[in-house]
């Protein structure tokens, strides 16, 4: 990431690497301090949801193009199985294996996607 970025910021809940705490705090600080052209969020769905909310321009911060890396369950890689399906805020449907996995974070219906992702928790533990 550092070879294609002006700055890479790593945040962990426990501070074991990078900054301790939630990613939206340093993100907001940077957005207030300087103009950024793109945000790429890779991590848990809940984190990507709040990054997209931070960068969507609805508050006192500017809108910033944001890509979220949706690492959903992907079985066939063609969208036929529907395992990687996600809803968009305009009521549409996309497939992470076909339309992503890196997608515009501002169109993802994260509430719906979080519910879908929780359906597979037991299988992921196996």
From TrEMBL:
InterPro entries found in the cross-reference section: Dihydroorotate_DH_Fe-S-bd, FNR_nucleotide-bd, PyrK_electron_transfer
Domain (Dihydroorotate dehydrogenase electron transfer subunit iron-sulphur cluster binding): residue spans on this chain: 71-108
Annotated PANTHER family: DIHYDROOROTATE DEHYDROGENASE B (NAD(+)), ELECTRON TRANSFER SUBUNIT, DIHYDROOROTATE DEHYDROGENASE B (NAD(+)), ELECTRON TRANSFER SUBUNIT-RELATED
Protein name in UniProt: Dihydroorotate dehydrogenase electron transfer subunit iron-sulphur cluster binding domain-containing protein
Native source species: marine sediment metagenome
